[in-house]
C-alpha cells in the first residue's frame, strides 16, 4: 500500500515557477512508475508527465514539454515536478500517482490516468494572468 502526499502548489503569476513534491509512505517507490496529472475545472484529468521506476524514461504532455521537468529521488522516496514559464492554462489541481510496481521494464511505461493505482489528494496550482 502506497500513500502519496503532494505539496508545493499555490498562486503564481504568469511566467513564474513552482516546484511540486510528492512524498510517499507505506512503501518505497523503487519499483513504481510515477506520474503527475492535472485537472482543470469542468475538464477531464489529463497527463502532465510520467517517469519510469529507475528515472531513465520520461514522458511529457505536449502542452508542458520544454517547460516542466519530472524527476525522482528514490532514496528520499520523493517525486518532483519543476514547472517553469507557467501559463494561465496550467491552472488546476495537480495529482501525484504511482502504478502497481510490477512493470516489466525500468524504462518503458504508460502515462495515462487509468493505469495508475495510487493517488495523492492533489495540490492546487493557480496561475494568474
Task: Describe the protein.
This protein is mainly β. Helix content is 0%, strand content 46%. The strands form two sheets. Strands 2, 4, 5, 6, 9, 10 and 11 form a seven-stranded mixed sheet that branches. It has a four-stranded antiparallel sheet with strand order 1-3-8-7, with no helix packed on it. The model has no long low-confidence stretch (mean pLDDT 96).
For the secondary structure, the number of strands is 11
Computed over alpha carbons, the radius of gyration is 14 Å
- How much beta, percentage-wise? over 45%
Give the N-terminus to C-terminus distance in angstroms: 40 Å
- The ordered H/E elements are EEEEEEEEEEE
Residues in helix, %: under 10%
Largest sheet: 7 strands, mixed
**Overall geometric form:** globular
In terms of structural class, how would the helical and strand content be classed?
A: mainly beta
pLDDT averaged over residues? 96
Low-pLDDT stretches are none
Specify the number of helices: 0
Features:
46% strand, 129 residues, 7-stranded mixed β-sheet, mainly beta, 4-stranded antiparallel β-sheet, 0% helix
Amino acid at each position: 500500500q502506497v500513500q502519496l502526499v503532494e505539496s508545493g502548489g499555490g498562486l503564481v503569476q504568469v511566467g513564474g515557477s513552482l516546484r511540486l513534491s510528492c512524498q510517499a509512505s507505506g512503501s518505497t517507490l523503487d519499483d513504481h512508475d510515477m506520474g503527475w496529472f492535472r485537472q482543470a475545472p469542468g475538464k477531464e484529468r489529463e497527463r502532465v508527465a510520467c517517469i519510469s521506476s529507475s528515472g531513465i524514461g520520461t514522458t511529457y504532455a505536449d502542452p508542458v514539454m520544454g517547460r516542466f521537468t519530472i524527476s525522482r529521488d528514490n532514496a528520499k522516496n520523493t517525486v518532483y515536478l519543476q514547472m517553469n514559464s507557467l501559463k494561465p492554462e496550467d491552472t488546476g489541481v495537480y495529482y501525484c500517482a504511482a502504478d502497481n510496481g510490477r512493470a516489466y521494464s525500468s524504462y518503458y511505461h504508460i502515462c495515462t490516468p487509468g493505469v495508475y493505482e495510487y493517488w495523492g489528494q492533489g495540490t492546487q496550482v493557480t496561475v494568474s494572468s
